[in-house]
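Input C-alpha coordinates:
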Protein backbone atom coordinates (compact mmCIF):
# COMPACT_ATOMS: atom_id res chain seq x y z
CA UNK A 1 0.00 0.00 0.00
CA UNK A 2 1.37 3.37 -0.95
CA UNK A 3 1.85 6.07 1.65
CA UNK A 4 -0.86 8.31 0.16
CA UNK A 5 -3.41 5.45 0.21
CA UNK A 6 -2.46 4.61 3.77
CA UNK A 7 -2.89 8.22 4.87
CA UNK A 8 -6.28 8.46 3.17
CA UNK A 9 -7.42 5.22 4.81
CA UNK A 10 -6.31 6.46 8.24
CA UNK A 11 -8.20 9.72 7.75
CA UNK A 12 -11.38 7.83 6.80
CA UNK A 13 -11.06 5.52 9.80
CA UNK A 14 -10.54 8.52 12.07
CA UNK A 15 -13.66 10.23 10.67
CA UNK A 16 -15.75 7.09 11.20
CA UNK A 17 -14.56 6.69 14.77
CA UNK A 18 -15.28 10.35 15.53
CA UNK A 19 -18.77 9.99 14.04
CA UNK A 20 -19.55 6.97 16.22
CA UNK A 21 -18.33 8.62 19.40
CA UNK A 22 -20.02 11.94 18.63
CA UNK A 23 -23.35 10.21 18.02
CA UNK A 24 -23.27 8.59 21.44
CA UNK A 25 -24.54 10.74 24.30
CA UNK A 26 -21.98 9.37 26.68
CA UNK A 27 -19.43 6.63 26.95
CA UNK A 28 -21.52 4.65 29.44
CA UNK A 29 -24.19 3.94 26.81
CA UNK A 30 -21.55 2.77 24.36
CA UNK A 31 -20.03 0.41 26.95
CA UNK A 32 -23.45 -0.91 28.03
CA UNK A 33 -24.48 -1.63 24.45
CA UNK A 34 -21.16 -3.32 23.74
CA UNK A 35 -21.40 -5.46 26.89
CA UNK A 36 -24.99 -6.44 26.04
CA UNK A 37 -23.85 -7.50 22.56
CA UNK A 38 -21.21 -9.81 24.06
CA UNK A 39 -23.65 -11.28 26.56
CA UNK A 40 -26.13 -12.07 23.77
CA UNK A 41 -23.37 -13.65 21.69
CA UNK A 42 -22.21 -15.75 24.65
CA UNK A 43 -25.74 -17.00 25.38
CA UNK A 44 -26.22 -17.88 21.72
CA UNK A 45 -22.94 -19.81 21.66
CA UNK A 46 -23.86 -21.73 24.81
CA UNK A 47 -27.23 -22.73 23.35
CA UNK A 48 -25.68 -23.78 20.06
CA UNK A 49 -22.95 -25.80 21.78
CA UNK A 50 -25.47 -27.62 23.97
CA UNK A 51 -27.52 -28.50 20.89
CA UNK A 52 -24.49 -29.79 18.96
CA UNK A 53 -23.25 -31.76 21.97
CA UNK A 54 -26.69 -33.40 22.21
CA UNK A 55 -26.55 -34.30 18.52
CA UNK A 56 -23.07 -35.78 18.89
CA UNK A 57 -24.05 -37.74 22.01
CA UNK A 58 -27.08 -39.15 20.22
CA UNK A 59 -24.96 -40.18 17.25
CA UNK A 60 -22.39 -41.87 19.51
CA UNK A 61 -25.10 -43.71 21.44
CA UNK A 62 -26.69 -44.90 18.19
CA UNK A 63 -23.31 -46.10 16.86
CA UNK A 64 -22.53 -47.92 20.11
CA UNK A 65 -25.97 -49.55 20.09
CA UNK A 66 -25.56 -50.60 16.48
CA UNK A 67 -22.15 -52.16 17.14
CA UNK A 68 -23.31 -53.92 20.29
CA UNK A 69 -26.42 -55.55 18.84
CA UNK A 70 -25.11 -56.43 15.40
Amino acid sequence: MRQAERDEMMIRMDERIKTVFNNMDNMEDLFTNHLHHHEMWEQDMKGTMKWWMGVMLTMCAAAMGYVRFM
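The chain has a mean pLDDT of 86. Residues 27-69 form the longest helix (43 residues).
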